[in-house]
Design brief:
The chain is an alpha/beta fold. The chain has 19 helices and 25 strands. The protein folds into 2 domains: 275 residues, Rossmann fold; 193 residues, Rossmann fold, CATH 3.40.50.880. It has a 9-stranded mixed beta sheet with strand order 13-12-14-15-25-24-23-20-21, with helices on both faces. The structure holds glutamine. Glutamine binds next to strand 21. Glutamine (GLN) binds next to strand 21.
Length: 539
Amino acid sequence: MTKYIFVTGGVLSSLGKGITAASVGTLLKHSGKKVGMLKIDPYINVDPGTMSPLEHGEVFVTKDGAETDLDIGNYERFLDTSYLKSSNFTTGQVYSSVIERERAGGYLGQTIQVIPHIVGEIVNRIKQAGKGHDILVVELGGTVGDIEGLPFMEAIRQMKHDDEVAGTFFIHVTLIPYIKAAGELKSKPTQHSVQELRRIGITPQMIIARSENGLPKTFKKKLAMSCDVSQESVVEALDAASIYDVPMSFLRQNILKPIAKELELGELEPDMEEWDNLVKKIVQPKGRVVVGFVGKYLALKESYKSLTEALIHAGAHLDTRVEICWIDSEDIEEKGAEALLSDCDAVLVAGGFGSRGVEGKIKAIEYARVNKVPYLGICLGMQLTLVEFARNVLNLEGANSVEFDENTPHPMIYLIDNFLDQSGGMQLRTHESPMGGTLRLGEYPCDTKEGSIIREAYNGEKTIYERHRHRYEANPAYRKQLEEAGMIVTGESNGLIETVEIEGHPWFLGVQFHPEFTSRLQTPNPSILAFVKAAINLP
Ligand code: GLN
């Protein structure tokens, strides 16, 4: 039977609940426990797939093709585990399934209500996610007191008394503000937030206090007293030099002791040596390299979260700080690529949707190709390498992706109308099909070509597995022409073009998949690692 750790947030959002949950999970995993992770999002959207990155940050894609909250990415990066669809659900999903069941007559004439039906559905989903694990860490999105959060709070309260639940532990993450004028740390917002939790019937057993300043012993004592937890259960969370140091900081404060005691987990001694070494290389690396990151949503860097983290992972393994030089592709359109990219050791063009900034990205690719600068193009960043090559090497005027020019004479990137999805089912796509549900999503195999950069990056592996999130595909009708001129297809998935390289260029790789989704601190993604190596000029 599974034990559950619930992580709630108080006072305000953006306190790093996801990192907290992932850190606790990591310590438990490194103690030999089988740990599952679950993020619950109280918003009504069925999934974040159709939300703007500006609204929601990155959409993370799981192996089985679910578009999920970016916290699932944190879980995978920390716990070095692939989680599935079931690791994230929203209010939208809960209501959909209850309504679907009601329409099918599944409730035998009952009146469907929040309690017990919605809450029951939530409890079932949490227990489902907990199956097969010693411990499930559940992060509840939002802040205590939100109207949307109430059914979820009720569900986790009920789970305390559930016969199928082997134990529960409640962690509350809050903010301790420092009032400069008074020179004082304030515990009142936390007290109120804990009171609100108690009113709902939940008594937190641990307070994780986010604070810019260290908490003096006397303050911790006061906080423990007023929140009715033991002193060892007040854990401070200061701003860390790296998010990957958070588990180490928690460990130094003995965070596992009260958890193990309450959940009867025995003596826990996590082996964090390798982790700690990597963190040291992130915080104080020997080398430094600059990657020009050409993108569109630069105002919200969270929308490239997995990719920026993947660069950190690669850097940690190469003892190098990967500095990102952020370049707005629209600026390139104005100022030219040379002016903005000449100080960079390598160029990275990330994925994206929509036509804004596309011409600037194409200029950046041309710059990297012509000047033989190491280049990695991801998804749209790969698609545009074909467009650039077609226009500037094959002299195919007006070449484009049909995403940006429906009537292009040379559709280098096009919309295939059908393909086999991950589970072998047929997927249909047309210009009219709705955005949600028509993307190629999740993990697909990719067969790599012998002697290619991609094959070498993955240590000679013939078939590699990476995740996708895109609608358009490279057009095989141009393959022969491209290859004859030196742009070689080096990766394929059931006839779909997955990777391209350029003969005679020291390191040029376009990948249709998103390698960043499988990068973890302890196992960096091979293509991104090889890219950073090329940027540093390592063999
Ligand atoms: N817009 C492109 C497509 O839909 C690329 C998407 C991406 O970069 N994730 O195919």
